[in-house]
# Entry
Amino acid sequence: TQRVFSGIQPSGDLHLGNYLGAIRRFVPLQDQYDCLYCVVDMHAITVWQEPNDLRRATREVAAAYIAAGVDPNKAIVFNQSQVIEHAELAWVFNCIARIGWMYRMTQFKDKAGKNSENVSLGLLAYPSLMAADILLYKATHVPVGDDQKQHLELTRDIAQKFNNDYAASIAEQGLDAEYFPITEPMIAGPATRIMSLRDGTKKMSKSDPSDQSRISLLDDADGIAKKIKRATTDPEALPSEVEGLKGRAEADNLVGIYAALSDKTKAEVLKEFGGQGWGVFKPALADLAVATLGPVSSEMKRLVSDPATIDGILRDGADRARALAETTMAEVRKIVGFIR
Ligand code: ATP
Ligand code: MG
# Structure
């Protein structure tokens, strides 16, 4: 079977980048694949999270999946920490992956900044846990934003090294020589990297300290309009051809957002708005964002107002995920040589 795994960290307010780059794309996949959509709470604590904020954000991410159209009866929706095999497999992978691989990750470098000796060990090992998330279910496809591409390559390296290092033992157990699959990223299409509204060279992130840098899924119409109005841009009018966006990161980003929200290409958007100034384009973009995100936002708010129901969905999802995870982990323990 072809299996899809993806996850989002409950590490702050979900934003337009999470929605366009990940959540929205989860929905059509649930009819074609076995899908697992995880709220990766163990990843979130690689940087400090207040416990109450973590609980709230965990429910919000689950609510966002469902509000966007993920059906928890089809896809498995759960939070990572309820399936402890994620941590167990991550430990094995910590002993497969090399430290040098981790130091090369741009996400680590970005998040650690100049302070790289004083961040958590978990932040460095993050990709190892991510590999465990994916490979525990032998997922073949992983829909994520472009920023996760390097981590997915590392997942392939870890799978390959595990398959190699333990080749003899895998054969002895009578298991497939490609024990862990070599996972395919799913990073196609527009909007795989939405940039900050303040700085066209930085991606939009939950962890950006500036609330003005992102459109949050829970922002109201007024908030969305204000943030778009204040978004950094150059003073030029919009070009009428896509080539005209070269070297104009902020303009390119806003046109890209418009294209993704309206399911059009950038060329089509520029055909409509080429020659217009920001005074015309920004309000149009704000209207479109409000119209698209509004229904998701109000459904999210309705869902989080009933935490018991969300927690029940997560528990049920975790039970289904665990059943799959246990099979893999039982095999891995034998491959590695752990006695039971
Ligand atoms: P944090 O700042 O805490 O890392 P984040 O905004 O990067 O938060 P993640 O939970 O790390 O969000 O990522 C969840 C999913 O959203 C991943 O698939 C990631 O690739 C995608 N994603 C994150 N930011 C963007 C973005 N700016 N554009 C498109 N996709 C994004
Ligand atoms: Mg991130």
Summary: The first strand starts at residue 3 and ends at 8.
